Amino acid sequence: MDKITTSIITIGDELLIGQTIDTNSAWIAQQLNAIGIWVHRRVAIGDVREDILDAMAREAAVSDIVLITGGLGPTADDITKPTLCEYFNTHLVQDKGALENVLHIFESRGLPLLQRNLDQSMVPASCTVIQNRRGTAPGMWFEKEGRIYVSMPGVPHEMQGIMEHDILPMLGDHFKTPAVVHQTLITSGMGESFIAERLVAFEVKLPPHVKLAYLPSYSLLKLRLTAFGLDKVSVAAEASTLFHELKALLADITVADQDITIGEVLGQLLKDRGQSVGTAESCTGGLIAHWITSVPGSSAYFKGSAVVYANEMKVKLLGVKPATLQAQGAVSEAVVREMVTGALTLLQTDYAIAVSGIMGPDGGTPEKPVGTVWIAVAAADGRMVTVKHQLRYDRERNTQMTAVYALNELRKLILQKG
Amino acid sequence: MDKITTSIITIGDELLIGQTIDTNSAWIAQQLNAIGIWVHRRVAIGDVREDILDAMAREAAVSDIVLITGGLGPTADDITKPTLCEYFNTHLVQDKGALENVLHIFESRGLPLLQRNLDQSMVPASCTVIQNRRGTAPGMWFEKEGRIYVSMPGVPHEMQGIMEHDILPMLGDHFKTPAVVHQTLITSGMGESFIAERLVAFEVKLPPHVKLAYLPSYSLLKLRLTAFGLDKVSVAAEASTLFHELKALLADITVADQDITIGEVLGQLLKDRGQSVGTAESCTGGLIAHWITSVPGSSAYFKGSAVVYANEMKVKLLGVKPATLQAQGAVSEAVVREMVTGALTLLQTDYAIAVSGIMGPDGGTPEKPVGTVWIAVAAADGRMVTVKHQLRYDRERNTQMTAVYALNELRKLILQKG
């Protein structure tokens, strides 16, 4: 069975000088995978005519589909459309639907209209125009020598609207797509090598159309099983059998048997139990609360947080004793114990998380170097667990590692009871 | 003057199915740019032998440098090293330094050592080994037919350590690199098209070795001026002259004249004035506080936050009146006014930010649809500004847009006084 292959070409100097991180490609790949289309190459190039022409020709030589994002804006550095005309040997014409869309957007926002905005309704004559419901630059679908080419704006929510509403259904119609099933197991507490050792026999017997990937994600490890086949039902059945076997082999270290965030894992536990949580955050500055509330519906179990960066706030909001701060310092087991107790009282929740640490680059001492962090998790029934970590990364990564560790500690505390 | 060109090849199925977002390429591009090396192509491929060989040959045909990340882990899906041996027609040998590094890491962490860990010290015989100070997989430097190839692990902090300590200096020695200067202006309150209109004359007269790019970033717009040349001093002087002209043209809408985050912009203003800030967050769930505290040294001006997701917490922590919540609803001007006043009192800061909104996907009503958000910013001297936004994106983007809007409103309030 031949895979339907896609190359994604992202156009824009900002991707090459590192000013922008490419999130579009990951999103597109997820969507295409779900309908059985395989992204086997992603290429990023600048706003350079020759590079665009070259990339299109190269990718069309090895892929069935060439998806292009970026370079469709109203400014002078956006040269994708004239370059598409050159590639497809055609010329720009005005599209009535795209023009109406531009006029409607400017009218509804009460903005004056410039020629360069009107120009966004010009499209290569040989394309099928895909209207953009979220912006002024339309998408474009081309067919040439058995290949499909799609050009879309690089603004993520505009591209996503065009993909979901039009391109994914059109690709599904155009190709006879194979079935792909992904199953993800999230583990904690065991290194990649040790898990691999435990899975030697399992991996050896995997058929060639099933792959297992190891994906470290902060202090967690994701194991992704992927199965391909012609028939959706049999692929799903085979993947399910193997995934159950994998789960049984790793039951003692499993965090979740689906690809969700640690915030979602925790949310499901709390929702199932009708219980609530709050946080008391020093070094993470609100990140743990943000991750909890990133989950839709989190208001069912999340009440609030005290972000207590300054010591005076630890005292005022959480009742941490000045004497404890004085004697032990803000980054200490004694202080996170008082913080988590204070959070349970302040927020009146079933569980609370407290963290205090030194995230860097400054603020370390010989006794408490950068990366020292104390975590406390506690339940209203009196149970409390504290852990210390010594992290070794930069400020951003230390903060995110701390948030994952803290959420995972609370997960373990909640399950301890059952 | 010929540019030194680089292709970045990232290897790993997780990048192609969209499970991982590629942050390495952006970081590498920033570092190379700073020493005058131009990344003109980035390619992502899977853990597939043929695709790796093909990508290396293709990229070497158009680039001076081929940087490869990923596929060097200890598990079965990591096939980069044998494939490198095939490409360079060599074989694996054990490297003494890499072996000592592996032994040292496992000993210091008290972990038992497996054969697959020891195998990480095997390297292609023809490479120059670059020791990895942050992990077990060494970097590798190859030269072939006038091209430089570098293979590094995909774990970001390991790759960064190898680049900073070894590869960047080695590339600097090997090539006579041109000078590149970037200058970035951040603006708010005017659309891309209108700015472009204002800059028509400026853009027309830019010499060919200077480029201007428009980079929308949430509700802000970044304008990046890039100049190339042989001589660092003259390039910097030319870029500086043009950038001053650009700043003068956009003085009324300038947020910052360097590429920093809105959290950093605000931090500088507060630090300069010796003033402090705190937040009262409902719908952003702590994100604004997290962005403020992501800046090293933010403890100088940030005291804390009340994340008040539940209405009872708005009352308890901030003194919002139950009658106001009852009459106006949590997402209302009256409530954010009481929240911001309560935050100033609770946190005893010079400024406070309060936000309340409906981020979606659920919770909207006909009068207050998803995306409705109220922001209040206030100063301890009594000044207060409230704004309402109607956002139109998904939960994540709505939350981030809200955080940018709120921080920018406070920036304006602080400057209002001067």
From TrEMBL, chains A, B:
Highest taxon listed in the record's lineage: Bacteria
What SMART domains does this protein map onto? MoCF_biosynth (SM00852)
Q: Which Gene3D superfamilies match?
A: CinA-like (3.90.950.20), MoaB/Mog-like domain (3.40.980.10)
Q: Which InterPro entries does UniProt cross-reference here?
A: CinA (IPR050101), CinA-like_C (IPR036653), CinA_C (IPR008136), Competence-induced_CinA (IPR008135), MoaB/Mog-like_dom_sf (IPR036425), MoaB/Mog_dom (IPR001453)
Q: SUPFAM superfamilies, from UniProt?
A: CinA-like (SSF142433), Molybdenum cofactor biosynthesis proteins (SSF53218)
The chain positions of domain MoaB/Mog read: 7-174
UniProt-listed NCBIfam families: cinA_nterm, PncC_domain
The text of the family note is: Belongs to the CinA family.
PANTHER family, A to Z = NICOTINAMIDE-NUCLEOTIDE AMIDOHYDROLASE PNCC, NMN AMIDOHYDROLASE-LIKE PROTEIN YFAY
**Which HAMAP family does the record associate with it?**
CinA_B (MF_00226_B)
Q: What is this protein called?
A: CinA-like protein
